Amino acid sequence: MGWFEAIVLGLVQGLTEFLPISSSAHLRITAALAGWGDPGAAFTAVIQIGTELAVILYFGRKIGHILRAWFFSLYRREWRQDPDARMGWLVIIGSVPIVVLGLLFQDAIHHTFRDLRLTATVLIVFGLILLLADRIGAKKRTLEHLTVPHGIGFGLAQALALVPGVSRSGGTVSAGLLLGYTRADAAEYSFLLAMPAVFGSGLYEVSKIGEGTGPEWGPTILATLVSFGVGYLVISWLMRYIKTNSFLPFVIYRLALGGLLFALIATGTLDPNAGPDL
């Protein structure tokens, strides 16, 4: 992987991670269109750490309160009813599904799930699910109403993002909307919930960087830094946007991209299985 390729993929990661359009799908598609081959699940997992650092910067004060309250709740009974401590436990509970399913489906994540025909299909299907959720969701609940079953529901939706095209934020926000949460609160919990999964996945895959046919450390670090800077700008914009606007533009984009991807595959312009991981 060259430096230019790393910059482009870092930009793509930063631009798409927090939008409900699937960053992993865009990394896969961008590389395929440019003729670079599949950057691989390991590279994708590691550079996502950059965008999660943007989450820490944006929600820094809130995350600090959650960590402090959660830590005290471990040994001080009076802290166990604190809302921030409760949120800490709910983030842990919601992270369980993606950890379990990620370990169970390791081989499929690196191979089967990266087929561009599957990516195109889930772009369209989960775009329609997001449209439905945004239309029928009550949008009345806040994170104060978050329960353990709801946290698990969010977590199961996040686990679906192991398939490129689903979108971590798109899947979890759709689940939140269907459960009656506001757009902003569903997105906030989605971003908080992603942190353990992304950092865990990135650290798990980091040993594959610089090994064999995998990307080198230099370009990977550059892509991670670019994704951090761009990701922070995007999350800042998105949290303002969804307070007064619907997800319809993202739904339209997902449907158009999925349709275009099918057309490119059908005409032989793109090989759905191209790339070193396949």
TrEMBL record:
Gene Ontology molecular function: undecaprenyl-diphosphatase activity
Topology within the bilayer: Multi-pass membrane protein
Cross-referenced Pfam families: BacA
Segments traversing the membrane: 40-60, 87-104, 116-133, 189-207, 219-239, 251-270
Record carries keyword Translocase: no
Catalytic activity: di-trans,octa-cis-undecaprenyl diphosphate + H2O = di-trans,octa-cis-undecaprenyl phosphate + phosphate + H(+)
Record bears the keyword Lipid metabolism: no
Location of this chain's protein in the cell: Cell membrane
Root EC class: hydrolase
UniProt KW keywords: Antibiotic resistance, Cell membrane, Cell shape, Cell wall biogenesis/degradation, Hydrolase, Membrane, Peptidoglycan synthesis, Transmembrane, Transmembrane helix
Top-level taxon in the UniProt lineage: Bacteria
EC number: 3.6.1.27
Family: Belongs to the UppP family.
Other noteworthy facts: Bacitracin is thought to be involved in the inhibition of peptidoglycan synthesis by sequestering undecaprenyl diphosphate, thereby reducing the pool of lipid carrier available.
NCBIfam families cross-referenced by the UniProt entry: PRK00281.2-1, undec_PP_bacA
HAMAP family: Undec_diphosphatase
Protein name: Undecaprenyl-diphosphatase
Gene designation: uppP
